[in-house]
Design goal:
Blueprint (H helix, E strand, L loop, with lengths): L3 E4 L2 E4 L4 E7 L8 E7 L6 E6 L6 E3 L7 E6 L4 E6 L8 E8 L3 E4 L3 E6 L1
Parallel strand pairs: 2-11
Antiparallel strand pairs: 1-3, 3-8, 4-5, 4-9, 5-6, 7-8, 9-10, 9-11
Length: 116
């Protein structure tokens, strides 16, 4: 069982940055792939970024490439999402998730609001 707690969301202006954190419970954090997803009002939850257990492999949705960076610190059981050059369209609830195969574990989400 993995419990995930996101933090770091907030209200920023367009062009500014935020760093989200996701703290995980458990002693096997490095075995899990970790991802970030987001859900905007009235829309479905969509994939944002994923990082392998070792941290050596990452992948991003096209709409965040070059602006967002996912990273992890396995010693701290934490995954991060550095978000730069934020746009109003990035406004959403951001969720972190963990997987061995499927995305089985989810956090409660953290709100990110970008004003124009």
């Amino acid at each position: 069982q993995v419990q995930l707690v996101e933090s770091g969301g907030g209200l920023v202006q367009a062009g500014e940055s935020l760093r989200l954190s996701c703290a995980a419970s458990g002693h096997t954090f490095s075995t899990y792939g970790m991802g970030w997803f987001r859900q905007a009002p009235g829309k479905e939850r969509v994939f944002v970024a994923v990082i392998s257990g070792s941290g050596r492999s990452t992948s991003y949705a096209d709409f965040v490439k070059g602006r967002f960076t996912i990273s992890r610190d396995n010693a701290k059981n934490t995954v991060y999402l550095q978000m730069n050059s934020l746009e109003p369209e990035d406004t959403a609830v951001y969720y972190c998730a963990a997987r061995l195969g499927n995305w089985d574990y989810w956090g409660q989400g953290t709100q990110v609001t970008v004003s124009s």
